[in-house]
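Hi F.,

I've been meaning to write this up properly since the lab meeting, where we talked about keeping a consistent format for the predictions we share between groups. The idea is simple: the sequence comes first, exactly as it goes in, then the structure tokens exactly as they come out, then a line or two of notes. No screenshots and no reformatting. I'm using this chain as the first example so we have something concrete to point to.
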Amino acid sequence: MYHSYMLKNIIKRYASINGMNKHMKSLVYAKKLDNFNANTQFISFSGPGTIDFVNGMVTTKLNEKFVKKNLTSLAVDDEDYEPPQTIKDLQNIAMSNHVAKELIDEYKFNANNMDEMDIRRRSLYDEQVEAYGNLKGQLTALLSSQSKVTTLMRLYTPLNTQQENIIVEVPKQQLNEDEKDHDVLAILEKHKKFKRNVKMIQDVQNDDDLGFDVWDVCFEGKLERSDMELETLSYILEDNKMNYVFNKKVHIDAHFKADDIIAVYFDDVLYNGSLLNDESHKVYYKYKVLVKKEKSHYKDFIHSFYNEVLNEDSVKEMKQIEQSFGLFDLCDIRPGSMLPFDLNLDYVPNSLSFDKGCYIGQELTTRMYSTDKITKRGVPIEIINSGNGIDPQVGWEVYTDDEIRVIEDSSENFNNVFGNSNRFIKKRKKPLGKLIIKNDETKVRLITLKTKYIDEIFVSENKTMKFYLAPSKEEIKVKGLDFEKCKIDINIKTPYWINEYLEE
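Output, unedited:
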């Protein structure tokens, strides 16, 4: 869903750059995270049936249910299978792109020695390219039976393992009494009872044998011709072996010493957000890296040709991208309070699948999507004023005093002599959404907003509408507040997914 627009954006960005063919990046920062003060924890699942177990709970498709066949290709397990179109595209790109040349050389050298089932065990399925081989991790969600988001998760696949193994990163929860049904560890333990062959380690980061350190690492680059070619190629990879080689080359070997790390997670959304940042030609490659404990310095696991250059402007720009597009973290959501569409997970690559079959909360989620019943989406905001010392809280409601203009449907106006005119919906003091994310440290603010107002702002391009936050009517009544004095003006910012939304 997301790649069609991003590909156009990449081409547009490249058209404005006179870049070299050589792939150039610099290391912006590498920070070892303090495990004691961390707000997330890591859980390991391993053993036969691990992939099926995780697949049955999360919103991401981790298993291909069938082997595709057609008149022009062979099954993935046929001997001497090669993806002819992909190889041809690589050969053409390799004439001027050294990374593509290394890819095709590595594929030709190793393809016959690579085992399909081994790739399926050691990597994630990538639904967008319809192939296994994803080594860059995955953002996904665990839903309740009512299709509300219980928690967001990051999935990691260890590089050097001979068995099915997925490491799951989840928030450390401090739940209220009414939130006990959203206890992630309890949910995972409950479902693991049905998978006796799956081994679960709750705090694998501090395990004596399997423990690791966690690092935040970010590289900065410019979108050069070689990047554009590789991005284009990555969207048409439909071969497990090729996709595995591609991911290992681009996300592992290009940055890290593979023998010294356990797994990585690549922030796709920040990367795509930097592509949309027209004020700069910089792109950001942000990773969360699980590193073997004996490695105490970034030079122990990052290639020596990367020297850390702490560029304050780059760090500031990344924070602005996160604020502008409302890029939330795992711990920013309140368990069980929002739908996956409130967080726009269907616009995060591979995060939300609609044809993977049964998982917790799948039925309502798929029905809402397939019947076009998505009535609200999350959009980023900026708080314009917070006078009277009032600080808006999660759960405050969104209002407008402006009228929204609606074009009458032609079928409704067939016998109406004024059928081509516009009408205005009368303003009503009814909430249009809620404040669902408020992170005071990152300044990320996200509200849900009815889609008809999103259409009015971004489709009809009505930039004059004004919105504000206020406590719920129940809170105002209980606390005896003055509604008018509690109003906080907000500015609706452009979400990163809006162009894909408009295309639809």
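Notes:
Residues 375-503 form one domain.
The two ends are 9 Å apart (CA to CA).

If this format works for you, I'll send the rest the same way.

G.
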